[in-house]
Amino acid sequence: MYQEKIINPPSGYLTFALCIALLGASIFCFVSEIFLWGGILLAIDIFLIFPGFLIINPNQSMVLTLFGKYIGTVKADGFFWVNPLTAKRRLSLKANNLNGQQLKVNDKLGNPIEIAAVVVWKVNETAKAVFSVENYMQYVNIQSEAAVRHLANIFPYDHAEGEETSITLKDGADKVSELLENELNERLSRAGIEVLEARISHLAYAPEIASAMLQRQQATAVIAARKLIVEGAVGMVEMALEKLSQKGIVELDEERKAAMVSNLLVVLCGDRHVQPVVNTGTLYN
């Protein structure tokens, strides 16, 4: 596997001045009808000096090869001159965004889900990006999709019944993103790619089970709300009986306490308004 080698070629300004001088000399020879020397100087200028000029913009690099052999990579920005026989390939060192497509996969529990991720990456080692893989951008796309599929297979979408401790795709966003970033860095290191950030951008149940899972979530929410209501109602009933007993407002036997508890629980736990009934008789009629 190729290791990146950074080189610093000489500045191109002095060579550019020589190029202008040779061009002027060739023009003078043509004007003086010395066509042979004029042609030689022009050929040297065009074929041996001018092709060696390099202009590197900020956050760009140039990979150089000479007759099939890797010479090095120029990462410094500026104007340079290199061997004109070298083959040059320009690579950007800027950060790139990969907005992955929505994938339909099964989670750890076998539920079909839709998932997609956003990956921020950049080329870190140009030699690996050029020589270790055929097309490093296509390599990033395919390996990112494979990593997202693998991540979806090892975690459930949501907590299973009675399980609250495991990491899920829905609630463990930070941990899942960290694992995805680490796996992508491991997969893409072969191509000299560094992953700066990776996060889940889309997560949902597949359409065929979305309605059933929504009903399950609604039922869970209703049960949790009812549980809270019952706990509050029992506390209120307990407080009412205790206050009545402390202040001696009325003496109730066990049967009437049970009836009172039943009525209060119906009033407090019911989901509809209660119609009051006024008792005009005695407590026992």
Structural account:
With 285 residues, the protein is α+β, with helices and mostly antiparallel strands. The chain has seven helices and nine strands; from the N terminus they run ααββββββββαααβαα. The chain has helices at residues 13-31, 35-49, 126-131, 136-154, 173-188, 207-247, 254-269; strands spanning 53-56, 60-66, 69-74, 78-81, 87-92, 96-99, 103-106, 112-123, 193-205. The strands form three sheets. Strands 6, 7, 8 and 9 form a four-stranded antiparallel sheet that branches. The chain has a three-stranded antiparallel sheet with strand order 3-2-5. The longest helix is centred in the C-terminal third of the chain and has 41 residues, at 207-247.
Q: What percent of the residues sit in helical stretches (DSSP H or I)?
A: 40-55%
What would you call the quaternary organization?
single chain
Low-confidence region ranges: none
Radius of gyration: 38 Å
CATH architecture of the largest domain: 2-Layer Sandwich
- Distance between the ends: 96 Å
* CATH fold-level label of the largest domain: Tetrahydropterin Synthase, Chain A
What is the overall number of helices?
Answer: 7
The mean pLDDT is: 83
Membrane topology: Single-pass membrane protein
Main location: membrane
Organism: Pedobacter kyonggii
Protein name: SPFH domain-containing protein
